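Protocol step 4 of 5: obtain the predicted structure for the target chain.
Materials: sequence only (see below). No template structures provided, no constraints applied. The aim of this step is simply to have a reference model before the mutagenesis design in step 5. Sequence pasted as it appears in the construct record:
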Amino acid sequence: MPRWTKAKKVTFKYGLGDEFIDVLKTLHKLGLDSTEPLMVKGVPVSPRDVVAAALPDPATLGDRMTGKTCAGLYVTGEGRDGEPRAVYLYHVVDNEWSMAEYGSQAVVWQTAVNPVIALELLANGTWQGSGVLGPEAFDSRPFLDLLAADTPVGYGSPWGLEER
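Step 4 output (structure tokens):
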């Protein structure tokens, strides 16, 4: 992103719920997150591999999950007027909606819809360029408009922007 914006620092953070964090802490306390093999009946076994093998296939969980996922971007700096500005651009997807409309979990759908929209904008000529260009090299408004537009024109998934 710093190639296209005058950013001094760009970071990525991912938020998890308290219950999930507690599970991860418990696995860590028990040493079940370790990749170092233990001998189990003469066979070397990684504790993390045992935990992974015991978990259900995530692809089968979507219709039993409830809740929402939020992807957001918090930007601080100077506005075009030179004054300090902070904005939060976010996109919330409800799992029950994404399962009903697309048959995909919210996190999966929210991840997959981005390249789909980008490809659509490239294919119809809204976004143009040559070389290796990331989404930040293009005008974001057509992307956000298509994301929020009702089906069949768009994807029916609104976004929000808060001045902070």
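Step 4 remarks: The beta strands are 38-40, 43-45, 68-78, 84-94, 159-163. DSSP finds five helices and five strands in the chain.
Proceed to step 5.
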